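Worked example 2:
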Amino acid sequence: MGGVLRIMPNILTERLIRVDLSDGSRVDASLPEVYAALMADRVEAFPALRPHQRHSWHAFLVQLGAMAVREAGLAKLPDNADEWRRIIRGLTPEWPDDEPWQLVVDDITEPAFMQPPASSVERAADFKNTVETPDELDMLVTSKNHDVKQAVASQVNVDDWVYALVTLQTMEGYGGRYNYGISRMPSGYGNRPAFSLAPSVRPGLHVQHDLVALLGHRQAMLDEYPLSDSGLRLLWVIPWDGGKAQSRVLTDMDPYYIEVCRRIRLRVAAGRIVAARASSDAKRMVDVKGMTGDPWAPAGTNPNPRGTPPAFLGPRKFGYERVVDGMFSENWKRPLLFRPETSGTGGDEEMQLVARGMVRGEGGTEGYHERIVPLRHRTLRVFGRPGDPKQLEDIARERIQQVGTVKNILRHAVATFAAKGNSDFGAHRNGKPSPNDLAQPQANRLDEIVDGKFFDDLQDEFEAEESERDAIRKRWLMNGDDGVIDEARKIMNAAQNSLPCPSVQRFRARVNADRVFWGRMRGNDGLAFLFESEEEN
């Protein structure tokens, strides 16, 4: 379709969404046809979907589908586009002309797709800020060259606007005064991550799984959070002029509700779609600090002194320590779709932990992050039996602690070399990096290596007979090839070859660094138990 608008786009009836199918073809599909293809597991990808939009689009499809199926009273998910079209329209019967599903609606007092109506035509004057491209409208704001950048699209299609609207309205945080964020994050600088279980990350299987889980455990959401069984479902169909009096509360909302956080209207200018933005005096929903029952996002249980729960996805991103925290820490309440008993698995098959999210900071975003962790059936089963999770957690925490010990020793040894063999590193001198500064990247490199296999190695130990676990742990730490200590030794040797050191002092620096490395490793503050047989000999 290029950048020229031919028609007023209606996503229920017109083929506006590009889809790559499993037979290798690319087709244009309406939203109901997208659902039909997902139900048949024929979708390979949505080619216009950018990585940071994956979770917002997935969550939108699941929430909308769950509301439509429930409203229609269906016992199973429809498998054809006509039925999907019928039940989606059943959510908006007041608009027989499909205004809530059209991207451009000239009458500002009527809703448009993900665009709330105003109370009167006079409010059109509020929309003063014009946005030319969907990527400029998107939530992504970067000050550095991260995964993607803003406002780079010169040729856009309608589905680019669809994804930008969904992502902005369901994932955005605080954007400065009069630009407030969504209810489903703990603070304006938080995030709305995914941390859930799924049998596959194939779009169709993933959507089907989460749809069934939400429909089957609706009551659990109502029991845990002050939501309404007959609450509001699509916030973009309700008039909003940006005032505080129009703010909604959580008790008004359906468990699957889809919100909007910004006042946006798409228009046609010179044959192309553009967007217009208006400011708001208050949040669309009264602040509940992210405690909304979001089925994908962990909820913080220990707020800071100001009463705000922490953002789950922060500087530690989805490294092995953060994932272990999400699985076990009492600081986080596992979301509905992470719990095996409510996520559609009884623990008899392997699942994948799907972790996705955008790290947000004050004034911008700090990159999109995604991690897929295969979890074996025995690992999954522990979450449904008393006592077992603690055993798996203990193994994971011990491994994290031991990696931390090796990293500290590696950092000390490399810093010793960087200090020409001296143990007194000092601070920055003449603006140059200190030995500790030079050593930190080496510790980070070890972390990356451990991270790549952490959960496979963890499950190997956990699934072994108890009598075999000690030997497995020791081999993981040191086996002469790819154990944690072996990798640390390789990194130290590489650092000694690459870091600057006068040739006259290099031999002394190497000897002292090696002495620190192996001396501490064998000492009481290291991993002495690995060397007990040597001591005996």
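Residues 68 and 74 are 9 Å apart (CA to CA). The first strand starts at residue 17 and ends at 21.
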